Request: fold
Amino acid sequence: MVDLGEIRKEYTQGRLDETRVADNPFTQFHAWFEQYQETRPEEPTVMTLASVDADGQPWQRILLLKSYDDKGFVFFTNYQSNKGMQLDASGKASMHFFWIGMERQVQIQGRVEKVSREESAAYFHSRPRQSQLGAWASHQSRPLENRAELEARFNQLNEEYQDKEIPLPDFWGGFRLIPERVEFWQGGEYRLHDRVEYRLADGEWAIQRLNP
Reply:
């Protein structure tokens, strides 16, 4: 057995007061995200996305958040990947951000919907050319004989679309997570963390402090 019980860290950087947070989670998220960016993290938009398959088995993976506003939080993927099919089938997902440098976490739960084809195309064509080709080359989540097979597809596509615009694949695009519950967590000394929950009820956000 590898005993990790002695690895400990005290959280002492800040407090979170439910009487002083923003009226809605979008404003609160934006304030925290701007503060996080000021710390110059290596990957400021990194998050964990959780979905559930048809057997009720949870899945998690690391993705990058690409935009957010008061309509929701947007990310992009292959619609035929495991996550794409799971999100399409269940219509629900959860995001989690862990900003260890500030001793903060944000958890977002709600329903998901595909963004418009126009929005997906705009983001797809903003990506580096090699990333666009990569979206075509990868049959995401499907078995692969070896890396050479993947690289051969990429090279073939690179030749096919040389000096041409790479079209948006039919199987690739964005999802928007529309929040129904958002939790902000601030690490606290002695494990007395601050947890503030926003929960959507009848079109209004109710704010509640939770036990750590």
Helices lie at 25-37, 82-90, 117-124, 129-137, 147-160. The mean pLDDT is 97. The chain has two domains: 25-125+171-210, 127-167. Residues 17 and 143 are 48 Å apart (CA to CA).
